[in-house]
Each structure stands twice: as C-alpha cells, then as structure tokens.
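Schema walk-through. Below, the input block comes first and the output block second. Nothing else is stored per chain. Lengths vary across the set, and this one has 331 residues.
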Amino acid sequence: MNILNLRDFESHKSSAVALGFFDGVHLGHQAVIGKAVQIARGYGFSSLAFTMKNHPMSLLKKSSPALINTFEERLELLCSTGVDQVVWTDFDEAFAALTPREFVAEILSKKLRTAAVAAGLDYRFGAAAAGDIRMLAALGLDLGFKVFAVEPLFFGKRRISSTSIRELIAAGEVKTALSLMGRPFFIRGPVIKGEGRGRTLGFPTANLAFPDEKVTPSEGVYAAWAALRSSRFPAAVSIGTRPTFSGTSSALEAHLLDFTGDIYGEKLALFFMDKIRSQKKFKYPEDLSLQIGRDVETVRKVLAGYPEGMNSSVLELERYTIRKDVTHDSC
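--- output ---
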C-alpha cells in the first residue's frame, strides 16, 4: 500500500476515490472509504483515499481546530482501512484557489484517473467551498465518472462527525467518542521527566509529551490502555494541574499497572477508554495516595468490563501508532 504526495502520483489504472479530510478516521469516514474499496474491487479499479495534510481552516482562518489525529497518525489509520493508496496534498493558496470545475477536471479526472467517487453528503470542494455533492455528481457526469454519496451515520441521535468527536473528547466523554470512532482516542509521544511526585506517593508515573495540535481530554482521571514495547498495560491517566501540589501548568501522567522500569525517552501511546473521576484537590498527599489506590482498582474494573475483542484490538492499533513513524511512500 502506497502513500504519495499528489505531485508524485502517477497511475495508468482507473481509481475509485474516497474524498475527505478524515480527521479521526471515524465510522462515517470508514463507510466512505469502504464504499470506494467495494467499488474498486467490483470493477478492478485501484482504491484511493485523497486527503489534505493541513486542515483548510489553518489557511483560510489562520487557525485550525484541535485535531483528533496528527497528519502522521491520520496516514497510519488510513493505512488500516484497506485502501490501495493514500494520496495527500498541502492545502495551500494554489489548491484553495481551484474552482470546483478545476478541482474535478485537473485533480480528480486528469491526475487521479477517477472512475468513481465516494464522499459524504456534506462534502465541499473548490474555492470558497462552492462545490457540493450535487455539483460533484454533475461534473462527474460530464467527465465520465460516477459519484456515490454516502449517508451520514448516527450513534443514537448524535450524528457521527469529526466536530462532534472533538467536542466529546474535550469534554472528557472519551467512552462515547470511542463508540463514534470504532476505536479509542489515543495520544502518543515520548516519555519525559516530571517532578517525580508519583513515585513518592507509591505510584510512579510516566509524563507524556504530545503535539499541541491535538485535542486534549478534560482534566480528570481516565482508564486507559498503554501501548509500550509492543505490549499493553492497563493505566490510570491523570490530566490536569496537580492542584494538591498547587500546580499551575497542565500535565499528562500515566501510572502503568503491572509494569516497572525506566522508560524515559521511549514512545508511549495511551488509548482512552473511560473517564473515572474529575480532578480534585486533596488536603494531604497521603489522601491523594489513598485515592490513587482506589483509582487503580477502578481502572481494572472498567477495563475488564470491555469485550475482550475491544481490549485486544489495542495491540492491533499499536501496529499503526507505536511502530516507526510512517513514511510518505508506504505503510
């Protein structure tokens, strides 16, 4: 499976193309991509997901929403969907200036050799987002490809969308976000040195550095799976300012259950399954230590409550998140 910049893409084979930014690669995105893969397999086309490196708002509004995934993570997750190729481009001024017809004629038809397109009903394209799914279908009819509009998916009454998932994660509702994505939200990064207070409390923690561009769950304590060295460990994860010690800056600290050892500098990924309590200030450190002990037991119970298939899938997710960084030419 190949990952290519648009400028490097060449193909003599017709493509079934899934269109989208795909932040989160959630269940709705998976339906769009799955449709493109289904068409490709049925007609002998190449299946292709076309995306952009940066969020359009980063250029148009000079700011971007906090993202569910970094660009690298998004590529890795797209690799797991079954498409033959992922093609990406920078959303720069030249790309943003393309009219809807120019985008369809020059990019989809000429460059990607599109024979079929799958996109969500709310897909927009072209300068000033002037193109919609109806215009795409009309232009496709002119240029010789068919458009398959994929209906939105719902979880209960909630429409599955990247915006909705970002809001859920920011509110600490990671369990609901998991249901909308089909996988847990994760944060990964190198383990950095902290203040060492966890060790003095009897619960050593790994402090995680992670990209500023990612959405961060609200302050509190979470039940999570930690992926480290191709293994997984239950973890109690604290996000917040450590009010018991009058902290002022927010930190992400993970106590890995059933693990001992020095992991400074190593890459760690945390898969958030549920929030177990809000942040609280304790009068004495000893009270905090007792609470952490209760948190550990709660984490074990929470994680044991998930189907084994879901818990085991963390190791499969680890394949796409903890391995060496994905290159831009292969998965």
